[in-house]
């Protein structure tokens, strides 16, 4: 009988030390927000970026490859011009800092800190863990009637993000579904794939009771693409499993309610009898287009959408959205953005900012799609997650934009996509280090 060495946990954990700060950023999003300012996850993300700068200076190495620097640095020019057009220097610098954090600095930090596919998978599992936690809180809110207000009842699942950020839990859960689906379709050990598949199915419940139509559409489309990329046979099996789970959850457990069915039906009711939220969204979209037409090249300036909104909006726009429940007393929340990232960028940054930012995303998607997995399929899960996270964001941005504590999660997700598509380490990873057990075995050997 061969001798089995005792696992030196401190040394094994040390192998994952570089990625742990990124895991901490994701984990801190499970805490309730403390106010309107920067949350704990935002603060830690800034510290992570600072740590990366110090690390690179000490090691005297180039932080990014030329291709990565170009792709991630594309939005900077448009942001700088739009910041100069802001109503005040403070607003311009604040808006620019937020965009740089989410779309440039945090993704670059992920590129610097991730060293292999095992790190990639650990960070992806942290997304799943956050989704499970937020989903559990959200389902409890729905069952006990302690969530955010929806159609006069406090049943909307918002997790720890509260009624001020009704999209926060939906975003976290949806990205968790995308990561879990990718992990389930990979070539990792069976127990990992089974666990990921179980998480993906379970997370459909909190996603449903979030009542977020944009998150539903983005998740359905992204998972369909992931299944197709994984192969037709596996796609059919997974689709059958999801359909069976849907029958059990909706029919057996009574997850499907009249409100849920009405919310689903409202997706197609955009012309005949749209609800007020749809009317507000179309009015805001028209207002954003009007701003762009006035300043087509550079836009009206960062953070200036609220100032120009009323000058381009019609009387159909309501005074604000109703906020109540989940610890909030009833009040109106002003509509300060067009609820479409593309139109927000187009109105505030013009064609210059729009082409640079969206061009960066599309270039990143092309790089991620073209990055090859190993012939034995060992990197398939990473490829599916990397492409899926960015695809989900691109679809969701039709209906939503940046804002709220969950925004930093977007930066980490873009970093995973960038690592897969822009670094040689993604394709050069050895088969031994391609799984979590292999990474632990390497740590033991050292």
Describe the structure.
The protein is built from 20 helices and 4 strands. The chain has helices spanning 9-14, 20-28, 40-59, 66-73, 75-84, 89-113, 117-144, 166-184, 190-202, 204-208, 213-230, 232-252, 258-266, 276-294, 305-312, 341-370, 380-396, 407-422, 424-428, 436-445; strands at 148-150, 153-156, 321-325, 328-333. A hairpin with a 2-residue loop joins strand 1 and strand 2 (153-156). It is globular, with a radius of gyration of 22 Å. The two termini are 22 Å apart. 47% of the residues are buried.
How would you write the strand order of the largest sheet?
Answer: 1-2
User: Distance N terminus to C terminus?
Assistant: 22 Å
Quickly count the helices.
20
Mean pLDDT: 82
Beta fraction of the residues? under 5%
Helix content: 55-70%
In brief:
By secondary structure, the protein is mainly α. It is built from 20 helices and four strands.
List keywords for this structure.
446 residues; mainly alpha; two-stranded antiparallel sheet; 20 helices; globular; disordered C terminus
Q: Secondary-structure blueprint of this entry?
A:
Blueprint: H1 9-14, H2 20-28, H3 40-59, H4 66-73, H5 75-84, H6 89-113, H7 117-144, E1 148-150, E2 153-156, H8 166-184, H9 190-202, H10 204-208, H11 213-230, H12 232-252, H13 258-266, H14 276-294, H15 305-312, E3 321-325, E4 328-333, H16 341-370, H17 380-396, H18 407-422, H19 424-428, H20 436-445
Antiparallel strand pairs: 1-2, 3-4
């Amino acid at each position: 009988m061969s001798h089995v060495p005792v696992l030196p946990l401190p040394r094994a954990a040390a192998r994952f030390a570089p990625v742990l700060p990124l895991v901490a950023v994701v984990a801190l999003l499970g805490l309730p927000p403390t106010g309107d300012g920067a949350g704990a996850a935002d603060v830690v993300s800034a510290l992570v970026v600072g740590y990366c700068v110090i690390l690179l200076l000490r090691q005297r190495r180039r932080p990014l490859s030329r291709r990565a620097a170009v792709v991630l640095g594309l939005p900077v020019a448009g942001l700088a011009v739009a910041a100069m057009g802001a109503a005040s220097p403070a607003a311009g610098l604040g808006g620019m800092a937020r965009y740089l954090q989410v779309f440039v600095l945090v993704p670059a930090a992920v590129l610097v800190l991730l060293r292999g596919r095992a790190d990639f998978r650990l960070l992806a599992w942290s997304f799943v863990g956050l989704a499970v936690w937020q989903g559990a809180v959200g389902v409890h809110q729905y069952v006990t009637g302690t969530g955010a207000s929806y159609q006069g009842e406090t049943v909307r699942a918002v997790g720890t993000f509260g009624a001020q950020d009704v999209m926060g839990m939906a975003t976290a859960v949806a990205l968790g579904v995308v990561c879990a689906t990718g992990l389930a379709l990979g070539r990792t050990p069976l127990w990992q794939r089974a666990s990921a598949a179980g998480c993906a199915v379970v997370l459909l419940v909190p996603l449903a009771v979030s009542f977020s139509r944009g998150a539903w559409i983005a998740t359905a489309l992204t998972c369909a693409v992931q299944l197709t990329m994984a192969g037709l046979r596996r796609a059919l099996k997974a689709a059958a499993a999801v359909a069976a789970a849907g029958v059990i959850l909706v029919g057996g457990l009574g997850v499907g309610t009249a409100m849920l069915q009405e919310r689903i039906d409202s997706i197609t009711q955009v012309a005949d009898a749209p609800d007020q939220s749809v009317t507000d969204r179309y009015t805001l979209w028209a207002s954003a287009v009007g701003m762009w037409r006035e300043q087509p090249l550079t836009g009206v300036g960062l953070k200036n959408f609220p100032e120009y909104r009323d000058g381009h909006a019609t009387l159909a726009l309501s005074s604000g959205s109703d906020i109540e429940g989940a610890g909030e007393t009833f009040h109106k929340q002003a509509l300060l953005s067009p609820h479409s990232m593309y139109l927000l960028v187009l109105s505030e940054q013009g064609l210059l900012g729009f082409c640079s930012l969206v061009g960066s995303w599309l270039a990143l998607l092309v790089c991620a799609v073209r990055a090859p997995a190993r012939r034995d399929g060992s990197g398939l899960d990473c490829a599916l997650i990397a492409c899926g996270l960015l695809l989900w964001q691109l679809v969701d941005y039709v209906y939503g934009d940046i804002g709220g504590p969950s925004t930093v999660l977007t930066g980490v997700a873009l970093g995973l996509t960038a690592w897969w598509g822009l670094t040689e380490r993604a394709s050069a990873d050895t088969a031994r280090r391609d799984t979590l057990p292999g990474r632990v075995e390497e740590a033991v050997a050292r």
